[in-house]
Amino acid sequence: MIGEKSCPNCKQWNDAKDAFCVFCGSELFEKERRVKESLEANPDPFKVPLIKIGDKDGYLIVFGKRIIQLVQIVFFGILSLLLWIASILPG
Asked: What is the pTM of this model?
């Protein structure tokens, strides 16, 4: 039964490559899809919000945005260092 998935609706076995049941047409991986969508809907709290560089930005705009990204990374690094120092001081 490797590579097969049981249909949640009609309980028939289908090839795991199929997205829908060949017998009743219901979605085979609906639960997995919903879990994936809910995880993707929640933003990563540890991702640094850097300025976005678009595909159609010119060379000078990309250069300026890279400088801004560097300043942002340095700022978040200094902020992290200060938070780390503040957390070890009481202990």
From this structure: 0.50
Answer yes or no: are the C-beta atoms of 20 and 27 closer than 8 Å.
yes
Give the pLDDT confidence of 48-74 residue by residue, as tens digits: 788 999 999 999 999 999 999 999 999
Q: Is 44 left (phi over 0), alpha (psi -120 to 50) or beta?
A: beta
- Structural domains of the chain, count: 2
Find all residues with CB under 8 Å of 71, minimum gap 6, and list them: none
Q: Using DSSP bridges, classify how beta strands 13-15 and 4-6 pair: parallel, antiparallel or unpaired.
A: antiparallel
Identify the domain containing residue 90 by its residue range.
45-91
